[in-house]
């Protein structure tokens, strides 16, 4: 396991990142049973932090706990991802008018959008390892959460955050071309410009294009898996 800073992170954080990294790099493959004892031997972390880390991963949809089978790396089905992305599209286009209104009167959220885009553009040009891929996916998720926050509907934001639509990203690590990731950030910029311009039609078009492109990229990667 890579050297990690135990002074600034809890053991739960360390275990969480280590297990997620092993899922991402396919040390732990979809459907594989997770044995706590083996996690202890691999990471040198006691049972309680590992269990707590697994609970976090269960809530994110990367791991599942099923009766008589125990804890397993969750298998992701294309149909499930397609359905979740369709729900995302419905959520993100439902409150377009309200999102524009709240965006343009909230200076703090506008600044957060700018910081997110700036950091994402800087990162995406040089992403080269698993930790940077994690950061890339985190920034992508943050952008969409900021957009949903503009809806002003806190309950909707909570449901949206629990959909787990970004969980698939950890299963497709390393297979998405850099060009696709760069294009995704450009699509974020287009969404931001439409928000700033207050153009409802253009904002809807940009959101639909962005989410449909994400769906297309995922479909292509799943097809490659089936053909390999």
From TrEMBL:
One of its GO terms (molecular function) is DNA binding. Keywords: DNA-binding, Transcription, Transcription regulation. Pfam families: FCD, GntR. The keyword DNA-binding applies. Gene3D superfamilies: GntR ligand-binding domain-like, Winged helix-like DNA-binding domain superfamily/Winged helix DNA-binding domain. PROSITE patterns: HTH_GNTR. It comes from the Bacteria. It comes from Paenibacillus naphthalenovorans. The keyword DNA-binding applies. This is GntR family transcriptional regulator. SMART domains: FCD, HTH_GNTR.
